[in-house]
Structures are given as structure tokens and as C-alpha cells.
């Protein structure tokens, strides 16, 4: 389709996600919303992830995109890795920190050089970058004089906790030198925090850890740019958001959940609405299986895209789930067990015959909103948590790394919709918490609370809700800085 006469006058944002599943999904949803508000969008994947998206989505995945929306790919500077597996997180951080600045600059130069062609986009007028990409995006922003908008795909509570990790180091409170139950009462906006509730990386708080240092470098440039977007809902994290706003020299906007805003604003006929971001091929047969189950009877289990289990943890989870006697839908990625195949015990297969559906990947939001799903065993990734709150589903929480410990604390203690499973997974504990969630009064209380949050989230995405208002403010700011 040929652009109309006003096309060259539109603001043009390039969207730079961190090259991991949940980050790509959040940025793509924000890109859809910005496009719906009138911006031209260039969505930037790494070559590795772009290939995976095409393989998962099929040959027609990117056909018939609307005018003003395009996908492009740039190199990540990393050695080749397994075609259908999560890349090493430390390597991705190295790439985002040191290797992608030059390719981003080259891309913007190429895009601006093509602006006069018939099918070309307007010159790039804004960079919307995942906060973990801003160390590279800054280079392009300064070179071309293009304003930068930061997107934090983590929760506000985790974002604030990350900002105070250097203080832990200064105070000598980094494990293993301190009890994990030591209270932290000096972070504004955060109540009843302990050392164990602070973010960790790959199960460690080693002060020399490369990923922790990468996180510190990101936090050090918190005030760069023209605005910061946090993918959250104002009423959910109001105290933390107020604390963050008081620290920031630039506006901080809570906008979310992105998917719910898309569902409520984009017409079904819009091709862009239905383009997904999954790096694994979705198995939709699970939805038909859910149709055959009783209401709120199924436990959904998914540890996300970057969490890994040991073989023993897989066995303990499996037997605990089997012994609970509840039907379940379990997503087991091909690379879920680090360095080994995900092999389930024969006893598990025999015990769960007729009440189990196991797949490599699924359309998670459709699963969470299915009436047969009564609970979610999750790693507490923020996208998964926000999707679960939107669906009104209570959770069992097994945080793996990064922001997930902080999100787990808020899910269980502050929002009262979760039960935590200890890091040292034991089948008896898994069986106990599954039964508590699915059968007992505690689970019913969590369900009621989850439904209350569902209503609050829904109201925030209404025409006059906080998320809709903040999205309009962001678009106005981008246009005014064009």
C-alpha cells in the first residue's frame, strides 16, 4: 500500500527490545499502541530472533502489515547459538551493553537515507528503547540528535529495588555476608522488604556478577531521555511509582497492561492486532483440551522463556503435581532443563494419564483467560504476572532470578494473590501448595482478591483510566519533540 500525503509528516519511532522473549512481546505491544495513535514504527529484532519469529509464525507471518509499520533485523555481535533455544543471558547483556550501538547507528542512517523513496518511511524522530538497550541506544540518540524514550518491562517495585542494589553493596548487606531475612526499611515506597526480596541474577548476589553490573549501569542512566514508561498499572504500585517519580528528572508514566489496551482499542480487522511475538511455535490444541475440563479445575504451569530447572527440580515438580491429583497444562520448553533433556519419570506419566496436557509453548493469555484454569504455577516473570492479574487467576510462585524475587514478594504479601514455593523444590511442598490453591479456603481468598485486581486493571485501561491517559501523554511528548 502506498503511503498517503500526510505520511511523511508523521513521527517515526524505532522500537528496540532487549533480545529475549518477554521483552520482545512487551515492546511489540507498545509499538502497536503507538502505531494506533498515529506513529510510524520500525520494530528492530536481532537477526537471531527475527529468524526464530519467522520460523514460529510461518512464511506469511509478516504479510499485509499496515502502512507505517515494518520489521527490520540487526546483528547482535554474538557467536552463532542453538537455533531454537534461549541465548545465554550474560552474553545478551554484553551484546546490549557493548556490541549493538554501531548496528543501531547504521540502521538509523540507512532508514533516514531512504526517506525520499516512494515506499520509504519518514526520518527517524524518536527511539523507544527497552531500558536494557539504552546503553547502546544512547549512542545513536547522541549521534543523530534523536530523543529517547525508555521502556521498563519490569514492575515498578522491581525497578525501585534494582535502584537500591548499590546501597546494599555499600552497606555490606550482599549475601553470603548477611542473613536473607534481614529487614530493609530504608527504601521509600517499599514496606516489609527483606534481603531475600531484592533482585538477584542467576541465583546470585555476587557483587562482581556481570549481569548485576550491567543492571547498575542501566540504573545510572535512569534520567536520560525525554520520558520513562513502566509497563504497569498505577493503582497496583502507586506508592512505588510515587517514589520513583520523586527521584526522576524526567516524567515517569505507568502504562499497562499493553495487551488489554490493544484488546480494547484496536479493531479485530487490524492485521497488526493479531501479530504475535513468540519465539516458539504455539500449540493451540491445548485450548481444545481445556474446553473439555471443568471450570477452574486446571493448574497451568509455565516457567517462562529464560528460567531453567535442574533434572532433579523437574522430577520434584513433576511428582508433586502428579500427587496433587489435579488436571494440569504444563509447558515444557525444549531447553527447560539446562544442559540436558527434559525427561519426566515413568511413574509421573502413569499417574497423570488422562488429566495432563504437556506442550512446548502455548498462547498464554488465551490459556489464562480460559474458564477451566483455576491457578498458575509461575516463575514470576513480570509479563506473566501482569497477564495473570489481568485474567484474575491466583498464582503459585517459584521465582528463578532477576526481578522475580521482588515480584514474588509483592504477589504473595502485598497483592495477596500468590503462594511461594521454596527454591529447594520438594515434591511434598509442591503437592501441598497445589492443593491449598485449588481446594482450600486460602485458594478461594486468593481467587477473590485476584478478581478484585482484575477489575482495577480493567478500569485503568478504560478511555479515562490512568493507563489510557498516560499513553496519550507519551504520544504528545513524542510528537512535541519531533
TrEMBL record:
Please verify whether the record's keywords include Transferase: yes
Q: What class of enzyme is it?
A: transferase
Source taxon at top rank = Eukaryota
Keyword set, alphabetical order: Glycosyltransferase, Transferase
For this protein, the record's InterPro entries field holds: UDP_glucos_trans (IPR002213), UDP_glycos_trans_CS (IPR035595)
Q: Any idea which GO molecular function terms this record carries? A: quercetin 3-O-glucosyltransferase activity; quercetin 7-O-glucosyltransferase activity
Q: What is its EC number?
A: 2.4.1.-
Name of one Pfam family that matches: UDPGT
Q: Which CDD domains match?
A: GT1_Gtf-like
Belongs to which family? Belongs to the UDP-glycosyltransferase family.
What is the protein's name according to its record? Answer: Glycosyltransferase
Natural source organism: Punica granatum
